[in-house]
Structure formats: structure tokens, C-alpha cells
Amino acid sequence: FYGFSALPEVQIPDSVSVLSEYAFSGCRTLTNVIIPKDVTSIGTCAFSGCTSLTEITIPDGITELSYGIFEYCPWLTEITLPAGITSIGDYAFSSCSSLRTVNFKGDQKQKAQITVGQYNDFVLSATWNYEAQDGVTLTNVSIKSLPAKIKFVNGEELDTAGLVLAATYSDGDTLDITCGFTVSGYDSWTAGVQQITVVYEGV
Fold first, then answer.
1. 23: region left, alpha or beta (phi > 0 left; psi from -120 to 50 alpha)
2. Max Cα separation, the chain?
3. To 5 degrees, how large is the angle CA 149–CA 155–CA 157?
4. Model-level pTM?
5. Cα(164)–Cα(169) distance, rounded to whole angstroms?
6. What value does the CA radius of gyration of the chain take, rounded to a whole number of Å?
7. Residue 57, C-beta contacts closer than 8 angstroms, at least 6 positions apart
8. Which of 5, 15, 81, 182 has the fewest CB atoms in 10 Å of its CB?
9. Dihedral of alpha carbons 3, 58, 62, 92, sign
10. CA 140, 141, 144 angle in degrees (round to 5)?
């Protein structure tokens, strides 16, 4: 269906277990798609450029969202993800500027273990709703390692590479956090020592 512009709705047959790369890419009128529960793999850029798609549910058998899977889906507002998701590829949600809600079937600790690739700011800044009953929750955050670079010249952008947070959860486990946090308070044109604020809410 690559580039098929007159496809407003599709229900994929239950016999399908794999959606190939670019399967529905460029289907600009696609607003509703039902993915069967037995699908275990969705290829690169499978729904990229589906500019009318507003919401979608990823079945429980999916463990990773591939490169560019929803790239340039500007009206995608809500997505449901299974608890077993372990990685989100580069550009998976690039240009998804309307994404506001992620319904996650896991808990905060499971979310923290998801590896998130580059250019996925919209999914990280969305509101995550946790569906796991009595799930593990975040109880404390501290800085484990400072950035590799802590001195900058005037006009140089802040580089947080190497910054690692330690997130402690209600079950007593502590995980290293290397993405999904926000950094504020840095002014590249202000000389002298500056104090920056790092915020990680685990949501």
C-alpha cells in the first residue's frame, strides 16, 4: 500500500504476523488502522507520512518500534504501547508534533528500561499513562555521573553526553538513566560558573 493515497481505513487480516518496511508509508488519508494481536514485527517507516493518522494501538507481541515507523505523522495524538517494548528507533516519532498521550501497559520502571533513539523528543515529552495495576513507581532520582565536559567557551552549546542519573524505584531497584530528562538554566553567553537543573520524572 506504499503511497496509496485513497485508503482511509484498513483492518489487517489476523493471519498477518509481519508488516514490511514502508507497508503503509505515504498513505495520506489513512485515519484508522487495526493491527492484529499476532503481529510481532513492524518494519522501518511502516507508517511514515500517514499525515491523517490520529491514534494507533501497537499489539503486545511487538518489542521494538523501528526506525522512522511514525515519522512525519503530524496529527498522531495518541498511541498505546505494550509493556514489552524495549526500544524505540531513531526518528520513530520525528515530526509527530501533536503527540500528547502514550498509554503504556507497563509501569514506570519498565518505561525507564526502554532504549530511545535520536529525534524522539515528542514521544518523550508526551504524557505517559501507566496501565499496570500496582506497578513499580519512581521514588528518588540522583546524579550518578556528571557530563564528560563541564567547561565551555562563550557561545558553545551545552553538551550533556556522559550525564547519568540514578533512578530508584519502589521495589528497591536502581536503574541508570541516560535519556528522557530535561536540562535547564544554561546560558551559552553568560560567563562564569552556572548552575543547571536536571529534571527526570519517569513519566
1. alpha
2. 63
3. 45
4. 0.79
5. 16
6. 19
7. 34, 35, 79, 80
8. 15
9. positive
10. 135
Model pLDDT for residues 160-199, shown as the tens digit of each residue: 999 999 999 998 999 999 888 889 999 999 999 999 999 8
Residue 123's H or E segment, with its range, is: helix 121-125
Look at residues 14, 47, 13, 15 and name the one whose alpha carbon lies nearest to residue 31.
47
Contact 4, 27 (CB under 8 A): yes
Cell 494501538 belongs to: 57
* Grid coordinates given for 156: 558553545
Report the Cα 34 to chain-centroid distance in Å.
Answer: 21
Report residue 195 as a C-alpha cell.
548552575
One-letter identity of residue 107: D
Strands (DSSP E) found in 48-124: 55-57, 64-65, 78-81, 87-88, 101-104, 115-116
Confidence of residue 1 (pLDDT cuts 50, 70, 90): low
Burial group, residue 118, by CB count within 10 angstroms (0-12, 13-18, 19+): exposed
Contact yes or no for 81/59 (Cβ under 8 A) = no
Which residues have a Cβ under 8 Å from the Cβ of 106 and sit 6 or more positions away?
A: 82, 83, 84, 85, 130, 131, 132, 135
